[in-house]
Amino acid sequence: MKFNTYSSPHLPVAEGVAIMMQKVMLALIPGTACAVWLFGWGVLINILLAAVTALAAEALVLKLRRRRVAVSLLDGSALLTAVLLALALPPLTPWWIPVVGTLFAIVVAKQLYGGLGYNPFNPAMAGYVVLLISFPLELTQWSAPGNYPGLLDTLALAFTDAARTGVDLDALSTATPMDTIKTRLGLNETLGEIHSTVLFGYVGGRAWEWVNLGFLLGGLWLLQARVIQWQIPAGMLGGLSAMAAVFYLFNPDSYTSPAFHLFSGAAMLGAFFIATDPVSASTTPRGRLIYGAGIGILTYLIRTWGGYPDGVAFAVLLMNMAAPTIDHYTRPRVFGQP
Amino acid sequence: MASVTSTDSGNRDTASRFEHLDRFHGGLVLPSLHEMSTSLPIREAGIPPLLVIPLLQHIGETAECLVKAGEHVHKGQIIAAPRGKVSVPVHASSSGTVVAVEEHPFPHPSGLSFPSVIIETDGRDEWDERSYTLPDYRQLSRVRLLDHIRAAGIVGLGGAGFPTQVKLSRDSDDRIELLVINGVECEPYISCDNMLLRERTRELIEGVRILQHILQPRDCVIAVEADMREAEAALRAAVSTAADSSINVISVPARYPSGGERQLIKLLTGREVPSQGFPSDMGIICLNVGTSAAVYRAIVRSHPLVSRIVTVTGGGVKQPCNLEVLIGTPFSYAVEVSGGYKDDVDRLLMGGPMMGFAVSTDEVPVIKATNCILAVTREEMPPPEAPLPCIRCGKCTEVCPAELLPQQLYWYARSENLDAAQDYSLFDCIECGCCAYVCPSHIPLVQYYRHAKTEVWNNEKQRQASDIARERHQAHQERLERIKRERAERLARKKQAISGKDGARKDAKQAAIQAALDRVKKKKELEGITRRNVDNLTAEQADKIREVDSRRQHKPPPGEH
């Protein structure tokens, strides 16, 4: 009797890439829900626009590259890139912002480097940084927490010229807490004075702390489900809070607390969902700790002394560049070797 | 009194030394699936009409065939003699007539055929009369026992099949610290060691005692897996009733690959077998339980290794069970004895689902290393999914028990960057398959490593071949040059010899000439004019000279016009 032959191991293999990506997206739900609840429909519109753009762009490039389109679209990686990028964008931004950012992320940062598994930079962050540098004004259009326009008004804001909608964008949008701190510290105010404004919540920025908490919950579930490993989040949050602690103890009037840093901006989203993108991160266990810590420290440096209010995106891209070198110097000791 | 106390505490130390198990990195918790084949006791598979006995069934050299077609053989008769140190004889597994010595499909991942002795059995199963009987092993020397173990054709029955006497013989006088009898069957499905421990406990223990006698180890451990409760209980009962308590029974956690030699030693001792080294380098010998039982049969019952226990199991077999199978029995026969295939059988494996390999035909015979015949359906083990690009998730690194970076190795193996692959310790990979099992991109990682290893070996072989060729060429060139040099030297010597004689003659001549010249010079000085050939002149010539002389005196010399 004749039989089919395959290579070992023969047991049915573990869950594939598509399942992993689905789990990551599932884990994004609590944080995203918080963001929608506090910042409005714009969050969902951004996600939708980015998702459609990502799938279309991915399909087009794969077709041009003569690759199997269906398999790659179904792996969910393009969709995840789109969602992560969209979550970083302000909710009242015009429609072409998520579209342009996603196009850059998928076409340039991902596919031109060879597609899934070959991109040296985190595509979502590459797309975000392109937008941040090219369209700084559009990337400040954050709605005030809890005070956002209705679905139709948001749609109108996204798809038409703000002036013609009759909605006053300036009245709706507001500076983020991190923006405010940066500006006011520049005006020689103390943190005590700044914190008394309406923008601040229990530990972090108002609303932002809830969004961060949501992403933290999702991230912890990812750890528990063993989709991601602990080293990168631990490294990043550790690096960020260690830096914050040192300066906070040194001068609490000029430097925000570690808790504020952990629960503001993109800290939790970055630590559990962005820095953990395996393709562009370090791969050795020790290397991941260093890689994460590097992102945390750079995030703090950029937040505190850089030209931008948040630094997660730049920090991730900078550490992406360092990942191969980190890997090279952090090879684990092999069993039985000295 | 003091000595008794120390012995007691020594035993307690031994027991407590293995109480706290160490851990090894990575590994997997896999479904056991042992129970599928452990409900029935071990049965004899019986005598198949044809036995196919390959001449090589282990690592090392092929045995030299001693029989021809048409010859009648007895059970236990040596049909092929060992060649070289790492080789053991091959025995006929039953009586019958040799019908051919030819290439036959062989259970190997390559699917290649191998020279085999094919015996048509007569059903009488008559033992060879020349079979030996040994006195009590305690009265035999180590060397004689090792000779008998070799003569019985015993190789490791755990899977790798390394000749046992080679493992047991020692070059140095260093004491063996630890003898590990490995009953940790960590791969899913396989239960032959489990059943052997349960049903043939006494045989196994006797085998261990013989091994203890040969090796004189300080400690001895029989290791079983945590989910082999009945086997552990049987072992403990057998060991506790024994007079001495030198054998420890240790249960290790069911975590694949805890039955791997290196992992098991790490669990038991906390020490790591050096990379590219052997347990014997650390004074540790590790043998499979089946091997130990085979040693008992060889030494006490004088039976060579002509059969072994094989687990025939999987969702594609009607009645999964453990069989005592004659070496050389075709897989098809063993499956038939187990009730035959189910209709939806898809894949046939030798060994377990993690490290075993698929065979394309069930004509292949059971060899000494066959611990399991696994026939599975498509639902049990669906065909591998199309691989996606590696996303560098690092799950492979998490589970790798050799603590490698499987994903980096994959890149280097894939790009045939063999130097870099070796730099990333390619040869420390034990091919356990954990990395491929967890890979979300379904990359057949182990296949890449095997390929890279084979490439390195091939290159090494080619390098050796070209080294030999280069050495030969150099030697040839040197020889040619030496001959040339020697010829030139001979010639030079000859010349010198000849020129030496000539020189003496020349010198004499020259001296004579010089003397003559000196004489002439003197004469000239005396006469003022030198005239040549003026002796014995004819009258005519003398007149001419005189005439010329007178003309010269009257004419100016030329050039003074």
Could you provide a short overview of the structure?
The complex is a heterodimer of chains A (338) and B (561). Chain A has 338 residues and is mainly alpha-helical. Chain A folds into two domains: 15-174, no CATH class; 207-330, no CATH class.
Structure write-up:
The complex is a heterodimer of chains A (338) and B (561). With 338 residues, chain A is mainly alpha-helical. Chain A has helices at 17-27, 29-39, 42-64, 69-74, 77-88, 96-110, 123-134, 151-159, 162-165, 169-172, 177-186, 191-195, 208-224, 231-250, 258-262, 267-274, 285-305, 312-329. With 561 residues, chain B is an alpha/beta fold. Chain B has two domains: 11-44 and 132-372, NADH-ubiquinone oxidoreductase 51kDa subunit (Rossmann fold), CATH 3.40.50.11540; 387-504, Fumarate Reductase Iron-sulfur Protein, Chain B, domain 2. Chain B is built from 15 helices and 17 strands. A six-stranded mixed beta sheet of chain B has the order 1-14-13-17-15-16, with helices on both faces. In chain B, helix 11 crosses helix 14 (445-527). The radius of gyration of chain B is 42 Å and the shape is elongated. At the A-B interface, helix 1 of A face strand 15, strand 16, helix 10 and helix 13 of B.
Proportion of beta-strand residues of chain A: under 5%
Question: What's the total count of β strands of chain B?
Answer: 17
Order of helices and strands of chain A: HHHHHHHHHHHHHHHHHH
Q: List the total number of helices of chain A.
A: 18
Number of domain units of chain B: 2
**What is the makeup of the main sheet of chain B?**
6 strands, mixed
Mean pLDDT of chain B: 87
List keywords for this structure.
heterodimer; A: 338 residues; mainly alpha; 2 domains; 62% helix; 0% strand; B: 561 residues; alpha/beta; Rossmann fold; Fumarate Reductase Iron-sulfur Protein, Chain B, domain 2; 6-stranded mixed sheet; 4-stranded antiparallel sheet; 15 helices; 17 strands; elongated; disordered N terminus
